[in-house]
Amino acid sequence: MDPKSEQFAFGTYLLLGDTDDLLCRNIRQALERRGAQVRFLAEPFCNSSRFSWLLDSTRTSSAVVFEDGTRLTDSNISGVLLRHTKHLITKSTDSDDHGYIQAEIQAATLGWVWSLSCPVINRLPAWLWYCPKPPIQFWSRSLRANGLEAVDFAEPRVEGRSASRTGGESFGTGDPPSVCDRACVVGHLTIWNLNRPLNVDRYESALIEFAHRAGLSFLEIGIVATSDGVRVKEVDPFPDLSRFCLSSRRAITAALTKLFTDSNSYLRPE
Amino acid sequence: MILICGSRFDPVIMFLCGRWDSDRLSYRLLELGHAEGKSIVRVGYKEGLMNGFIGGENWRLEVSELTGVFFRNSSCRPKRGDYSSYPNFDPEIAVLLNNLPCRVANRPAAGMSNRSKPFQALQIRECGFRIPQTLITNNPTAARQFYEEYDGKVIFKSISGVRSVVQRLTPEYVARLPLLRNGPTQFQAFISGDDIRVHVVGNQCFAIRIRCASVDYRFAWQEGIPLQMEPMVLSAEVSSRCLRLSEKLGLTLAGIDLKENPLGEYYCFEVNAAPMFSFYENATRQPISAALGEFLGQP
Predict the structure, then answer these.
(1) What is the ipTM of this complex?
(2) Among A61, B42, B145, B267, whose Cα sits 20 to 30 Å from the Cα of B26?
(3) Taking a C-beta distance cutoff of 8 angstroms, is the pair A58, A52 a contact?
């Protein structure tokens, strides 16, 4: 692409996800209705776009040139919505190199999203970037720090097999209970699927605090009611809108859009 | 009691066991990734506290008995070309190590920062170290401009945690820059000076000055280039930066790669969460494994 044909895009929102992702589509529509420019970038640092990121002891600057010649610098990015961390290379080269290139792209993208000063939803910590859907027990300590408990149904590994756990109040056996209520934490809000359950005031503030301490401004939570009280069964930093009713989807989209467009709503994680 | 999680065939673990055996330090080894190692993990929570036990062949250790854990995952090497899931540790073990109330060197979650050098670089500079001028790109034109801007004194290396040899960007490699369209590479302005390796164990720093003419001293032997290593004392300021950096990354054991340029300025390249300290301890007799034993052995 001749650099002369490149254009500068001002105030653009980047969607690092797939065009058929429901949330990406909804956010795109909502932002465009507000007059914002929105671009999909399914594969940063590979085939379809030319990426350059410079950093040194004090500065960082980056630019991406899309296939159509549009040039976007980091200062012109208003916000980034991240929908997955494992970017698949569609135009692969040698199969031996494929995995290596993928690891390089993942590593570059993680660093780059942390270098941006605009809102990034979510700016995942490194461990979550590489292990975005860990078992619920992975969250136990941080849930407990916020007054929440993880459901404990999984049986431990013994030489690759399962075995019963020792006694204890949270050690369950048998089939995992199904999620009875589902919510999305979006910034300072908790948006429930269908109706808001009764007596969840205490949990709502704890869930919001839990998300913030994890450095996340957007999180899906599945909870179950047990004889010991409410337990968290699922934590997903890539919420799936299709698991929510229509009115909740609208509320989630509106809250996310506000996070992007209202600087007071978005808290940058440390 | 200290628990070692890893493979008995891992050279660092073999070295550590040998040292701790001669120091008469008690430990148990939980085999990871080997069928012959019969490991058992049975843990849970009671009244907010983790309890249960971990066991192997002919031994069993209550969680309450644990003072510290040394975790090294190198037994799970990626298959050729498959770096996507590397390092692929067992989620059960990861859950256990991330939640244990005792000291762990290192918790798997903390080790993840080492899988992205630029992510680490952003943390490094916040701790007061310089980082080299760096370009990460899949744009051949940008790479060539960077090469020219630094008069050809440029190196390149992997962006991820996949081990790579640091190499000079020679004219032969410049001719291959169009291949960047297949995937990005990290280029850095070459920093001259001595390499300095710092091992942080808890709140102690062990520093080694490395004099070597090779761009990557780890592979100097392959080029027949001599390598000199000697213990050194860091200034209080540099030492404090190293401790701050390890703490920021959540690491209780770290191998920090520094370089001191001829002006006495310190550049930091990366922080290894699973350092091969045996290589350095063998060469310099610094008591890194003893310090680690002391750190993990304290209740």
Answers:
(1) 0.91
(2) B42
(3) no
On chain B, the residues whose CB falls within 8 A of the CB of A87 are: none
Q: Which of A4, A97, A110 to mutate to test the interface with B (most CBs of B within 10 A)?
A: A110
Contact assignment for B98 to A141 by CB distance below 8 Å? yes
How many angstroms separate the CA of residue B164 from the nearest CA in chain A? 11
A125 interaction partners in chain B (CB closer than 8 Å): 112
Residues B220-229: tens digit of each pLDDT: 888 889 899 9
Q: What backbone torsions phi and psi does residue B179 show, to the nearest 5 degrees? A: -70, -15
pLDDT over 70 (residue A176): no
**Residue pair B232/B209 in contact by the 8 Å Cβ criterion:** yes
Q: Are residues A83 and A155 in the same domain?
A: no
Of the CA atoms within 13 Å of residue A69, those in its CB half-sphere come to: 7
pLDDT tens string A197-215: 877 888 899 999 999 999 9
The minimum CA-CA distance between B297 and chain A, rounded to whole Å, is 23
Nearest CA in chain A to B248: A270
The total of structural domains in chain A comes to 2
Structural domain including A99 reads 3-118
- In A157-231, which residue ranges form alpha helices assigned H by DSSP? 201-213
Instruction: Say if A123 falls within a structural domain.
Output: no
A63 and A158 part of one domain: no
What per-residue string of b and e applies to B32-64 under the rule 16 or more CB within 10 Å gives b? bbeeebebbbbbbbeeeebbbbbbbeeeebebe
Please provide the DSSP assignment of B159-226 as one string: SBSS----EE--HHHHTTGGGGGGS-EEEEE---SEEEEEEEETTEEEEEEEEESSSSGGGHHHHT--
Q: Is B109 on the interface with A (CB under 8 A)?
A: yes
Calpha distance A64→A82 (Å, rounded): 16
Rg (CA), chain A: 21
Answer with the one of A92, A118, A144 that is the final residue of a domain: A118
B158 and A CB contact within 8 Å:
yes
Could you tell me the pTM of the whole model? 0.90
Tell me: pLDDT of B70 over 80. yes
Are A82 and A14 members of one domain?
yes
- DSSP letter assigned to residue A155: P
State whether B115 and A100 contact (CB < 8 Å).
Answer: no
Q: How far apart, in whole angstroms, are the C-alpha atoms of residue A155 and residue A173?
A: 7
CB–CB contact B99 A137 (8 Å) = yes
